[in-house]
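Provenance

Sequences were taken from public entries as deposited. Structures were produced by running a predictor on each sequence independently, with no templates supplied. The record for Heme exporter protein B from Crenothrix polyspora is shown for reference.
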Amino acid sequence: MSLSRAFFAIVRRDLVLALRRRSEIANPIFFFILVITLFPLGIGAKPTILQAIAPGIIWVSALLATMLSLDSLFRSDFDDGSLEQIILSPQPTSLLVLAKITAHWLVTGLPLLIVAPLLAVFLGMPSHALPVLLITLLLGTPILSLIGAIGVALTIGLRRGGMILSLLVLPLYVPVLIFASNAVEIASSGLPVTAQINILISMLVMALVLAPWPTAAALKMSMS
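Predicted structure for Heme exporter protein B:
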């Protein structure tokens, strides 16, 4: 099997499994919506305040929703033995890992990208800032999945690795959160955000190039 066929076979397999377990798709979306809708109840429905903190609210919610879904990235494969077959495959493990991360983003990150504009309008975000919000989510959520995959691979062999996973990945998520939310905030003021977008693009390219290798190595160590 060629590399491209192996890649898309893994993506297709994970998407089919996710559709059979629809809670994997629904849980992050419902969590994302719930967290955002609770903020007006907690701080009061004051348009000026909500509009000012809307970028941070949306991005913190997206970060937490992504973390909620990280454990499902390799867990089912680890439990049923499929992960061992992936590691023993003649295809490069890093490529197959990248395919699984791609499927994870399609199941979790892409739905967040779709519902985010509606929630941004709910929070009073200006309409001219919505394209920048979508761009930051399009660039930032794959970075969250790529970085999170490394943490999942390191903790997959632990019985209660959720807390350790959070401690591992949260510090690495902070730069994405800072630049993405700052870009949306600046766009809301009508200022250019080219620098922040370029930084996010650079971070995405680095994550795409670098993250699959330590993830594959960590999986091999966890399975040994």
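The chain has ten helices and no strands.
The mean pLDDT is 88.
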